[in-house]
Write a structure and sequence with these properties.
Radius of gyration: 21 Å
Strand order of the largest sheet: 1-2-3
Helix content: 25-40%
Number of helices: 3
Strand content: 5-15%
Number of strands: 5
Largest sheet: 3 strands, antiparallel
Order of helices and strands: EEEHHHEE
Structural class: alpha+beta
Distance between the termini: 24 Å
Shape: elongated
Number of domains: 2
Length: about 160
């Protein structure tokens, strides 16, 4: 099967020391992967696998995931933290002369153990300045539901 035309899904190819091959992944389909000896083959393999799974989902009437690149993000979301963390952040924000929202935004942007913000001095705050990589390792959140696994051989199994 060929890969999808105008495919806007989010793919990543990384080296797997455990498998001694490259692994192709698709963010929108976390249960799918493709192993190959070259990065190009891993990308082609995962794209073809996604195309096959989408065709199967269409046939069975399942909802097909929307590409993350097509979604609109408002820049707002609610985060629940323990009361002691809320208190600590509120105190730090007050001591820094900034709002709790600005401190939380800076912490999420700079998430390393560095000072979140300088004290308020009239200078423009740029939350993207000095930004770090968002993900340190390949840990992924796995859905707590039955997922379809497609192996390199193309065999389906349900977990």
């Amino acid at each position: 099967m060929k890969a999808l035309q105008n495919d806007h899904y989010s793919y990543r190819v990384t080296w797997s020391a455990e498998d001694n091959e490259y692994i192709g992944l698709c963010v929108e389909f976390p249960s799918l992967s493709w192993l190959a000896p070259t990065p190009e083959d891993a990308l082609q393999g995962i794209r073809e696998t996604v195309a096959e799974v989408i065709e199967d989902m269409k046939t069975s009437g399942e909802t097909i995931p929307e590409p993350l690149t097509s979604k609109h993000y408002s820049g707002k979301f609610i985060v629940r933290v323990p009361p002691e963390v809320h208190r600590m952040l509120a105190l730090e924000a007050a001591e820094s002369g900034v709002s709790l929202n600005r401190l939380a935004s800076a912490r999420l942007t700079h998430w390393e153990n560095t000072p979140a913000l300088p004290k308020r001095d009239g200078k423009h705050f740029n939350p993207m300045q000095g930004r770090s990589r968002m993900f340190r390792d390949n840990n992924q959140v796995k859905p707590e539901r039955s997922v379809r696994l497609v192996t390199k051989t193309g065999k389906n199994s349900t977990v």
